[in-house]
């Protein structure tokens, strides 16, 4: 048996006899198991609730009585974002962004009902999920188990005995790191079992789940190398523990909170109130379809009359009010899309800045990789917003077209003064069944892998740096500074 494996086996025996190591590892495994079970249950309950509410919203929309089509435009509709299967592993930004949008004519509403807005402030400091356990708690346990790997041996004076038995400094350090890697692998077991369950029961993609587990294994390998290297360089176990705890605090607590603030300071966000005011100002400039004397829509009416070769809108072969509503919705939706595109571009710049902080914090790199592969990052939220807006525009225009085709201009113009006309403009409610249901389409595995390329490369960079650091630390095993 090689000296490296002998050192590793001896270290495992020491860990088994260490009450601190046993308790720390056992607690982490229990926490990881509880996190996996509760997170899966929470995700499934939330997803079922959203599906039930979506079915209820669809049923209530289809079950509306005979109405004027434009009344249905303002009646509106609710759409809910379903949760991806891997949200049980890493919920990402879902708790902060909201899960439902109210769709109505002439407006583009934001998502509402995020869990954080409805729960205590404790929800803002991290949920107990497999991702949180491995990102924040697992490195901490590895530190308490492994901070004395080499420093303890040096302080006890047993390193010389190991070298006298034929073990080289590289074999000693490698064996210690191998033993700690076994502990890290043990920590991954609950997460691996949770991912297998998500693949089998929830339909999570094997490639995405496997890539996720590989990312976390790489992250823990970085910490193993850092812990073993620091323990080799530090003069005492106490110095090693203090240095490693400082590294953990900066990498997992401080920098993940500093990075978003840095992105905001570089590229400040416009508040929702400022955006709403700007949109309303531009809406007044482009025209108001409800104002018969508006210059833009007066010109639009003239062009329509010329196109159909008539002198009056009463002579058009359709209800002009419906066509007017369609034109107004096209203009307002175009403006909404412009502002949404600007906001999306800014969010992408912020995400790039935060990802770049992964160069100084492997936790940030892993977090970006994790939420991207799980489909729970801002990319997934933006996809929901974009698809919901496209759906809103489609159903509003479908209802406006019904106004143009199923309601006469004469009845439409006199519906408020003539009770008979008011009854005739209420069309058959069967038309509401023709409006398609909303279907959210998440990113494909290929799209998620492509989006995760940048944080994955940063994580591999950290693995390379950790490996080089561990290699250099061999020179310090015997105290040769």
UniProtKB/TrEMBL annotation:
Name of the protein in its database record: DUF3526 domain-containing protein
Residue spans crossing the bilayer: 20-41, 132-151, 177-200, 206-227, 239-259, 451-470
MF (Gene Ontology): ABC-type transporter activity
Keywords (A to Z) from UniProt: Membrane, Transmembrane, Transmembrane helix
Source species, domain of life: Bacteria
Organism in which the protein naturally occurs: Alteraurantiacibacter aquimixticola
Recorded GO CC terms: plasma membrane
Lineage start: Bacteria, Pseudomonadati, Pseudomonadota, Alphaproteobacteria, Sphingomonadales
